[in-house]
Structure formats: C-alpha cells, structure tokens
Task: inverse folding
C-alpha cells in the first residue's frame, strides 16, 4: 500500500454527524472509532465522541476527522491538518524528520494504543501534520 496524503478535520463534538453527511455526499465506507473504545474508563463525557473517523470513497478520496480531545482547544479556521500515512516506515520517518525538524512536536513519533506508530507536529509554517505508520499485522 503506497503512502497517502489527505486532509484531517478537527471538530468540537460533531465529527460523527459531519462524517455521516460527507458519506451521504461522496459515498464510500465510513469507519468511526470513539474515545470510549480505546479506554472507556478514562474517556468520561467524551466516550461517544469520535477519536478517529475515516471516509474512503470509490473515487479514491480519503477524509479523516475527529472530535478534539477533552481539554484541548478547538480553533475554527485552524482545524484542518494534513495526514500522511502508510506502511513504508522508512519513507514516513523521513517525512517526519523533515516536517518536525524545524517545527514543534506535539505528539512524538511513537507506538500508540491502536498499534501504529504515530506522531503530530506543527511545521515551521504553522501547518499541523500527522504521520501514521501502519504496523498492523496483515490478515492471514
């Protein structure tokens, strides 16, 4: 699977209806993961909020979105990030080093609770980037 580049939108609690609407517009397959699914005991009021949503369409569009985590600000106008993801760890780590090198790292590139290696940074131009290295074992 080649690496992909796509927009990632942050919402203030309405990621689910927004993604459902975009699915009506573009069609495709919608996958939604809640904060509760990855630690319900710690999620509290955010248990039903979207930690990660992804719409993949037959036209090869990919749109990702999430509700901002509890305690983090939602900044309309600055609520779109760019996600780079795939399985080529060397390629994605090179992107990460260049993007984060002169920027600010908010989430270090490291193994996450969902199993992938993920990091988030803001480059020197103020653009937020998310890099996800898929480490899931292929199905047998």
Result:
């Amino acid at each position: 699977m080649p690496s992909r580049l796509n927009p990632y939108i942050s919402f203030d609690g309405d990621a689910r209806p927004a993604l459902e609407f975009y699915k009506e517009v573009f069609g495709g397959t919608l996958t939604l993961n809640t904060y509760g699914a990855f630690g319900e005991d710690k999620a509290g009021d955010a248990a039903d909020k979207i930690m990660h949503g992804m719409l993949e369409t037959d036209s090869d569009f990919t749109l990702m979105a999430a509700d901002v985590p509890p305690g983090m600000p939602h900044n309309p106008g600055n609520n779109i990030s760019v996600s780079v993801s795939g399985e080529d760890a060397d390629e994605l780590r090179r992107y990460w080093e260049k993007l984060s090198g002169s920027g600010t790292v908010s989430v270090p590139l490291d193994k996450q609770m969902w199993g992938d290696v993920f990091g988030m940074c803001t480059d020197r131009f103020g653009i937020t980037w998310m890099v996800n290295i898929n480490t899931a074992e292929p199905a047998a």
Summary: Residues 4-133 form a domain with the 2,3-Dihydroxybiphenyl 1,2-Dioxygenase; domain 1 fold (CATH 3.10.180.10). Helices lie at 15-26, 40-43, 89-101.
